[in-house]
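REVIEWER CHECKLIST
Item 1: Sequence provided? yes
Item 2: Single chain? yes
Item 3: Sequence as submitted:
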Amino acid sequence: RSLLPIQAVMGNDREMTVVERQVAAMMRKQREEQDEQAALARRAEELRSRGEQALNDNGDLDVDSDSEHDDLERRGATGRARREFRDRGLVFDSSTDEVTVTVRAMTDLELGMAFAWMRRDQRRYEGATSFWSKAGTGIQECFEEERCPGDKDVHAAVGAWPRLIGAFVPFLGPAPFAFAMLKDDGLTVDTMGVRQGFRRMGLGRTVASAFIDRARRAAKVRAGPPECVIDAVPDAVAFWRAMGFSNHGGADSPTTAVMRKLCGDVAMSMTLLEDPPTPRGHEWWFEKPEEQRGYWSDDSW
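Item 4: Structure as written out by the authors:
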């Protein structure tokens, strides 16, 4: 009499084992993702702590860092830079090493210094973008990404740039004054941020121009499209419009359309080349006319 209940239990056990295995696998994956995000956050905080100490050692990031006091001894680091920028009429170009802006990969310490001013900016300036609290983990993940984004033709034409880029100028010291993240194409800016105390000095324009010029060089040799399309957050629309971008009228994918409604992003575009070279048809960015995409027709069988 006991065999039937045992067999029934065994059958239920086998059935539940399949279900439980699937659930356990999903939960395990979720835990792994959560653990990885927590580990990224810890590593970002470690870098930020080191970077904050380095900036403090340079007389930056104290309570008077942004002060432009008339007394030179009481002037803060960023305030002193702004005053000198205006007094000397500096232009950030390549005329001298002091004012030459370099866009490149960051070291651990340099990213830590960027993290430090990101956190300070969002605490000190009303309305400042919360890069540290909302995107710090994502920025750290981009920093640790080993593969450079972009097609091999992009890398051959304009070099392989990492996902996360820092911008430097000797005049402002060893810390990056801005950062940018690239999209998967390796050419287009996904996110860009300039230290709050160094805005309205032409630095953001200089960094954006470096990315635009790089995309234009790629387009000249068919390694990139002749048009640059970006997603601008509402607060940055005026900046990108001043850079020569205008509202992009192309259709969005369903997913992109949803994200635009959620985030308020604005699609903007700029023509890089007025007379671009004719595509050969195999370029990674080239979209073939619909009739050439290989779709089956009724008479093709």
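Item 5: Key structural point noted by reviewer: Confidence is low (pLDDT under 50) at residues 6-11, 291-301.
Item 6: Recommendation: ____
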